[in-house]
Write the structure tokens for this entry.
Amino acid sequence: MNLLSSTYVFSFFTLLSRVLGYLRDILIAIFLGVSIFADAFFVAFRLPNTFRRLFAEGTFNAAFIPSYVSEKTKNQKKGKNFADETLSILILILFFIVLLVEIFTPYLVYLIAPGFLEDSEKFNLAVEFTRITFPFLLFVSVSSFFSGILNSNNRFAAAAAAPIILNVVLILTLLISYFFDLNFAKQLSYGVSLAGIIQLLFLLFFTKKYYKPSIRFKNRLSSKVKLFFKKLLPSILSSGVTQVNILVGTIIASFEASAVSYLYYADRIYQINLAIAGIAVGTVSLPVLSKAFKQKNILKISNIQTRSIELSLLLSIPASLGLILASKEIVNALFGYGSFTIENINMTASALKYFGYGIPAFALIKILSNFFFARNNTKTPFYISTFIVILNILISIIFFNKVGFIIIPIATSISTWIGVIVYIYLLNNKNFLLIEKYLPKNILKIILSTVFMSFLLIFALDYYADYLDYNYKYKSVYLLIIVSFVGSVYLITCYLTGMLKTKNFKTN
């Protein structure tokens, strides 16, 4: 398997999904803007969507793939039995979670958005929309199981393409609601659950070549399945620490008017960079890394770890600088239409800028946690992630009254960078950080290429300033041209310096 080409396949479908996601959010910004309906829907969508990210974007895989690969390596029957038992218990647990949430939705909404209690209309809308959207959790979590099966067999395309369905369904929902004059937020809520069902059927179709599920409940769980579910919860928090931080940010932001919406739109933009630089690289590398540990192949382990870090930084460092330098232009081009005002753009751009400082850290957390997960160690990442979340909460609460909602992206970035330092220290201390000597030299090449790209970006933004103005009709086209140009220059520079040679990323 080639780490670079597999990451490219995963990234292509992820990028397509995010582009459609942006189109979806542009339509939401046009039709809903920053309103009580928007805030209510975003809160209702936040919880199942957080779980979607936690389960679907590598977190479930972090616990499932090492265990499944281990059993399948012994023989196919053991792998099949492990998967069947895991799926059966997973469905049972998820069913009861959804049932409990449907019953106690008002209490859940209060926990997620306590600030909404001051506005009874907004609170009641959030409760209604949450009840409609939450079944999505069941469908998307089971979908993530089938994605794990596919990824374990080094098949990444279908799993990466599945989230496209959600965006397509929601876009169609918005357009139908517009033509038939329906309630946008309510119909979007129904669209979320519908998309979950379609996504599940889609992945089931592609998985049947490698695995045919059998639902069976046993009186006693096997020791392997018990161990898996014991690892699952810490794995969810560990690998999904960025998503947990966002959820924490939503809770705190609910006390400031429109802050939930600002954070949502900013989150939507930087997530594409995280999806490619962290999730794509982490998802692709984990199966081969787990197999290498099973084989005790030290040279292969070192190569995979080194190339994972290198590829993650190669993608995240330029993305970070791009978001910092062009946050206002990006937000304006993507969402500066209809009900989305200049003030909305400025507030969202401020949040995006500070999230941008944390992009390399968000990506590295995904990669570094894999170095423990591949060893079936979920405890250490769990402890580190708990520390990151607590630190984020403390910084946000202490400075919220002085700084406002903008402290949330600042706290998220600071706490995650500190988490990266802790990861590196512990990995090095345990002799788990098996890095090849050329990595520092290649990181320097990445930094220099990024600096060159940044100068071009600053020049392009200044040169096309009039075409990126709020009132200019085709501003998104010009932003796309600028991003394509500076991105291409960066990739060419990386290639010329020897950073993007396909042969260097072979893991076989």
Notes: The chain has one domain: 3-505. The first helix runs from residue 3 to 31. The two ends are 6 Å apart (CA to CA). The chain is about 80% helix and 0% strand.
